Amino acid sequence: MIHENYKCDFYFIRHGQSESNATPGLAAGENYDAPLTDLGIRQATALGKRLRKLRIGFDRIFSSSLTRAVQTTNAMLFGMEENDKTFELVDEIIEQQIKGWRGVPISEAITPEVEISRAIKGKDFVAPGGESIREVQRRASNWIENEFIYNRDFCSRPVSSRIAVIGHGNTSRAIFQYIMGFDERLIYRLGIDNTSISRFIFDSGGWSVACLNDKAHLEGDLLGAWETGV
């Protein structure tokens, strides 16, 4: 049973610009574990400075185990002036993996036939050597449920926690569709910029949405474009 005063304030944050993001036109980045660019580091640092200015701190921080998310977390903490703060690595929230599309131009990978198949199969569409969005959603949502929602030792107490989850574009889209239940055809239409914040609250009344794709800390040359690819 969830305690009436239990509350988790989730800040889902996408990583900063990676080397793969900086190479447009590919269906999936050639390097699945691509590091951040200099711009990505600056974006994450700006995020941290904004959080510090707003006096927003986190009780717990979780990062995808991929390099770009770990670097984003470290740069964010640097901007928050909390370099010594620890965080946990989570394999379950890494980006959707599509081995067969790595380094392949979008025009070659996503043909009209593939578009039709993806439209028909929706979350169950599987690209060559890859995961479906449903599979990504399952591993990520299972982690959220096991760690927070159905963790009786945690949610049966009057806990109020602010939690940062630093992850990826398509994995975040899968999580948000799991939370909100919107038409799965809209998954790839959801814009999620590098280092943007999407905030969700879970309490005894269930889930509520506070904001999506908040990127107020990105101005001028820090502002990039969101992508639907991985």
Verbal overview:
With 230 residues, this protein is an alpha/beta fold. The chain has one domain: 3-Layer(aba) Sandwich (Rossmann fold). The protein is built from 7 helices and 6 strands; from the N terminus they run βαβαβααααβαββ. The protein has helices spanning 38-53, 67-79, 106-109, 112-121, 133-149, 152-155, 169-180, and strands spanning 7-14, 60-64, 88-90, 160-167, 197-203, 206-214. The protein has a 6-stranded mixed beta sheet, sandwiched between helices. α1 crosses α2 (67-79). The chain is globular.
Q: Which properties best describe this structure?
A:
single chain, 230 residues, 33% helix, globular
What is the global morphology?
globular
Rg from Cα: 17 Å
**CATH C-level:** Alpha Beta
| Residues in β-strands, percent | 15-25%
Biggest β-sheet strands, sense, barrel: 6 strands, mixed
Major beta sheet, strand line-up: 3-2-4-1-5-6
- The percent of residues in helical segments reads 25-40%
* Helix and strand composition category: alpha/beta
Secondary-structure blueprint of this entry?
Blueprint: E1 7-14, H1 38-53, E2 60-64, H2 67-79, E3 88-90, H3 106-109, H4 112-121, H5 133-149, H6 152-155, E4 160-167, H7 169-180, E5 197-203, E6 206-214
Parallel strand pairs: 1-4, 2-3, 2-4
Antiparallel strand pairs: 1-5, 5-6
